[in-house]
DNA sequence: GTTAGCACTCGGCTCGCTTGAGTGCTAAAA
DNA sequence: TTTTAGCACTCAAGCGAGCCGAGTGCTAAC
């Protein structure tokens, strides 16, 4: 009974045929006919039987026919079933593993850089478009402030967030300030603002700050405005795309409309950031075409894997491409990459005693 | 004689015909025939005469014929002559000016953000792909260091460059350090390293730093390594692209190869950063197809305007698109945008005493 | 339930035809 | 010498007919 459920009532033969069709279609992109299945698979039956099965699979919604006298192609439901139940585990070649190790190890840097490198690598290894994401973080606070005095009309405000990100703002006060005032400002901010969320900074707190700043209380107003901006920026999320040109090799994107849709989505970022925000934090997520509510994704698939540190999603890497994506390979690649990245950001100390710099995160 | 020279020996009529052809071609993208010129222009001669002139213009290299029985299209030389001598000044609509003002003023922030907003705007207003560039800076030094102590195994190094950019690195020393040691490190770095270029940091200097750090001399090695990395990153330049999808509306990019070439170039960034680095610092630069040594640009044109502050190029905005670009409009738009940006970054003090300016922050 | 056979469908390709925009050339006019 | 009118020529693009072949659905027999 469980097996029946998991297989959604598909006989073993139907599953084998469906898998063969998806595999073949992923490879050439053309419709797959009964004759091809007959000779590629070893199921002891004739083409006519296969045709019957295919007709039933179509009726069940797993296959589609582009036109009456063509073979079948998988429907979105077909891909979904394939990804959930039929897919074979792809084993990365030693060469691929070596590439991951080499590039990521050499590109040690802040999380930003690691993610960008990883998205590049994902694109290279899979031949689809890679994306690197820094997700929206809603409940972020600032854990530490610092100020750098440059001249009486110019100082820099530095903020370290609870996720470890460092942000800076240049400030140009109208009335000249002293180095001491700027230093005091950092102390006051650390005492009054840090570890508080935006909506926990109340008027009494601001008044206390102003009183502690004494003659330089005028600084508080402008600084607080910048802090709000800064928190808002953190809230936005970021996304980098690499390997757009790889899309062009897939005939599905010679349809200008599909290409335009996808490029528009990549441009926008909003839609994809939302999808990633909604996704599971643990697994690799697969979004197939119109499964998402994002209409523009209709003819494409998105696969992504969040990078988790200390229970927080600090980033994600992914791949975007045509529906007939080589899911097996993409899943394996993203798993491999994310494993490496997690290792990197969890190794706090390094062998060489040098720097190790897990970018945006907190310890 | 001077006029002759400036017009490269083209009679007034030839210039009028050439301009009419370029204008028409920019608009429809098709070859332009003698008949069209006859009725669009008021030059008192017949189609046959125009044909003769066109034949001569072709011989001189300003026009090309896609095939024997088609009209003419401008050659790269033709575009160049058009841009240099024939172009009419485009006057921005009040609506366009309002858009620039509104969006840029509302997007006050660090230079990064301004540039990105400007490139978006350039793309919107012109209907081509916009780019925002932070150029390579070769002779950059660090003007100020700061450190932020987080815990005995984790501190942050902050560096402010001579161009005002702020960069940060997380460091995780193997042996625990004290807050005082980290603070001392900042002082030592400010005394010994700041204002020096990378190749001016010699062994004696490093030894002096180690001696001043006392028991914590072990920190110096790892920090110096990060500083080198940081300087290397500054050296790289950055580029953001917006509105790639706009390219698809131009039939020249339905040629998959051309599109692939251009997308590849946009991906790479190297080529365009080089072009911008070579360009004039003052004017709007126009690079028409194979004029540049970048082969992949063969079927596209790049127009960009550097943003200069205190004699240094701190950024650039530009537009990339097909050869038959509406140069008049693009030139006007970029001039307008860069004017606004310059105003913004030169206003050191703001009415509200708020922020402004140059910063590229790192997390 | 499976198979063999057959008629049918339909996209994609090729071929030839027509159309029309646009040219170059020549010979006459200015 | 320059301009013009006229004419023959060229060639891409669009259209439709026709063929091909892969692949189907259906039916009748196993």
Helix content of chain A: 40-55%
Total discrete domains of chain A: 3
Spatial sequence of strands, sheet with the most strands of chain A: 7-3-10-9-8
Strand count, sense and barrel status of the largest sheet of chain A are: 5 strands, antiparallel
Unreliable segments of 5+ consecutive residues of chain A: 1-5, 348-363
Q: Any chance you could write out the topology, listing elements then pairs?
A:
The structure is a homodimer of 363-residue chains.
Chain A: H1 2-6, H2 12-28, H3 34-40, H4 47-60, E1 63-64, E2 73-74, H5 76-86, H6 94-106, H7 111-126, E3 129-134, E4 142-151, E5 154-161, E6 166-171, H8 179-192, H9 203-213, H10 218-234, E7 238-242, H11 256-268, H12 270-278, E8 285-288, E9 300-309, E10 312-322, H13 327-346
Antiparallel strand pairs in A: 1-2, 3-7, 3-10, 4-5, 5-6, 8-9, 9-10
Helix pairs in contact in A: 2-4, 2-5, 3-4, 6-7, 6-13, 7-13, 8-9
Chain A binds a DNA duplex (30 and 30 nucleotides) through helix 4.
Describe it for me?
By secondary structure, chain A is of the alpha+beta class. Chain A has three domains: 85 residues, Winged helix-like DNA-binding domain superfamily/Winged helix DNA-binding domain (Arc Repressor Mutant, subunit A), CATH 1.10.10.10; 155 residues, 2-Layer Sandwich (Beta-Lactamase); 95 residues. Helix content of chain A is 46%, strand content 18%. The first copy, chain A, contains 13 helices and ten strands. In chain A, the strands form three sheets. Chain A has a five-stranded antiparallel beta sheet with strand order 7-3-10-9-8, sandwiched between helices. In chain A, strands 4-5-6 form a three-stranded antiparallel beta sheet. Chain A has a two-stranded antiparallel sheet with strand order 1-2. In chain A, helix 2 crosses helix 4 and helix 2 packs across helix 5. The longest helix of chain A is centred in the C-terminal third of the chain and has 20 residues. Chain A starts with a helix and ends in a 17-residue tail after the last helix. In chain A, 41% of the residues are buried. The N terminus and C terminus of chain A are likely disordered. The interface between A and B is large, with 57 and 57 residues. Chain A binds a DNA duplex (30 and 30 nucleotides) through helix 4.
């Amino acid at each position: 009974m469980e097996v029946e459920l998991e297989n959604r009532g598909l006989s073993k033969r139907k599953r084998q045929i469906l898998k063969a069709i998806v595999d073949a279609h992923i490879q050439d992109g053309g419709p797959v006919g009964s004759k091809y299945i007959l000779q590629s698979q070893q199921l002891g039956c004739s083409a006519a039987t296969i045709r019957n099965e295919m007709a039933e699979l179509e009726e069940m919604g797993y296959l589609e026919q582009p036109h009456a006298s063509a073979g079948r192609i998988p429907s979105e439901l077909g891909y979904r079933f394939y990804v959930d139940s039929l897919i074979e585990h792809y084993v990365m070649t030693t060469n691929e593993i070596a590439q991951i190790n080499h590039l990521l190890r050499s590109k040690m840097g802040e999380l930003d850089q690691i993610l960008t490198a990883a998205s590049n690598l994902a694109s290279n290894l899979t031949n689809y478009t890679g994306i690197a994401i820094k997700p929206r973080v809603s409940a972020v606070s600032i854990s530490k402030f610092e100020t750098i005095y440059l001249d009486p009309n110019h100082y820099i405000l530095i903020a370290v967030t609870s996720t470890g990100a460092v942000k800076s703002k240049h400030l140009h006060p109208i009335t000249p300030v002293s180095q001491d005032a700027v230093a005091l400002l950092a102390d006051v901010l650390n005492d009054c603002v840090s570890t508080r969320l935006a909506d926990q900074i109340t008027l009494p707190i601001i008044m206390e700050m102003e009183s502690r700043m004494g003659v330089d209380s005028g600084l508080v107003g402008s600084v607080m405005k910048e802090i709000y901006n800064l928190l808002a920026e953190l809230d936005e999320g970021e996304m980098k795309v690499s390997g757009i040109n790889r899309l062009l090799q897939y005939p599905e994107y010679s349809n200008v409309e599909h290409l335009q849709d996808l490029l528009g989505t990549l441009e926008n970022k909003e839609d994809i950031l939302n999808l990633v925000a909604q996704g599971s934090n643990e697994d690799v997520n697969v979004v197939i075409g119109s499964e998402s509510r994002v209409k523009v994704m209709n003819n494409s698939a998105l696969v992504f894997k969040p990078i988790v540190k200390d229970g927080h999603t600090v980033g994600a890497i992914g791949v975007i491409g045509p529906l007939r994506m080589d899911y097996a390979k993409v899943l394996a690649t993203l798993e491999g990459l994310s494993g490496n990245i997690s290792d990197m950001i969890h190794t706090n100390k390094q062998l060489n005693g040098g720097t190790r710099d897990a970018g945006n995160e907190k310890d």
